[in-house]
Specification:
By secondary structure, the chain is α/β, with parallel strands linked by helices. The protein is 31% helix and 21% strand. The protein is built from seven helices and eleven strands. Strand 2 and strand 3 form a beta hairpin. Helix 1 crosses helix 5. The radius of gyration is 17 Å and the shape is globular. It is found in: Cytoplasm. It is an enzyme of class 2 (transferase). GO terms for molecular function: L-threonylcarbamoyladenylate synthase.
Length: 224
């Protein structure tokens, strides 16, 4: 039976975070608010937990989840061949709605699915998510919805789609709509793997960070 905690209340936040940490440590799933949408989270270093996340969403291993991290130092630990343009993007937009695909450190002992040696990383601008990340480390996180349905913008929507596949729901209240975007818009995703081989950065999903802002930081000649 899933448990739900009102994280706008100090006591609910304290209890919810404690039980969320315990659930993640057991390889179970937790729903957490981010700055873009509600996300369903699993221990990034537990292959069985990541598979549980994919199963809950109705996804295959061909759709590996991104990884949320507590800050730029973790970027260095999880990724390799980080070009200066990515560091500039991180300085500009983290914490925030930008996910960066990079080459993963080859020594990492994890299995996120068919990543082809890459990892998608983001530092969210969310007090609850960052507190959890600082306590438990990197989390595989995907939008808290069934595949094909709109991303959840409040915990009710998340629970209606994911039900008891999730152990703990952290309720941070309804998320605000980003100006100029649909309510279910997630992070902007860029693939920076080409930059390290003399190629370009590719915007693979248009999200809450506008394309023109990415181009402004990286340079028009290096973005496709």
């Amino acid at each position: 039976m899933a448990s739900r905690y009102d994280c706008t209340d100090p006591d609910g936040l304290l209890t919810g975070m404690r039980l969320a940490r315990a659930a993640l440590g057991r390889g179970e799933l937790v729903v957490v608010p981010t700055d873009t949408v509600y996300g369903v989270a699993a221990d990034a270093f537990s292959a069985s937990a990541v598979q549980r996340l994919l199963d809950a969403k109705g996804r295959t291993r061909q759709s590996p989840p991104p990884v949320l991290i507590p800050g730029p130092p973790t970027l260095e630990a999880l990724a390799t061949d980080i070009p200066q343009q990515v560091r500039d993007l991180v300085d500009e937009f983290w914490p925030g709605g930008l996910t960066v695909i990079l080459r993963a450190q080859p020594s990492l002992d994890w299995d996120l699915g068919e990543t082809r040696g890459t990892v998608a990383l983001r530092m969210p601008d969310s007090r609850i998510a960052l507190e959890l990340l600082q306590e438990v480390g990197p989390l595989a996180v995907s939008s808290a919805n069934s595949t094909g349905d709109p991303a959840a913008m409040d915990v009710d929507q998340a629970e209606s789609m994911l039900g008891d596949s999730v152990s703990v729901y952290l309720d941070g209240g309804p998320l605000a709509q980003h100006d100029g975007f649909a309510a279910s818009t997630g992070s902007t995703i860029v693939d920076a793997t080409g930059l390290s081989t003399g190629g370009k950065l590719t915007i693979v999903r248009h999200g809450v960070i506008a394309d023109e802002d990415v181009v402004r930081v990286v340079g028009a000649d290096l973005v496709t």
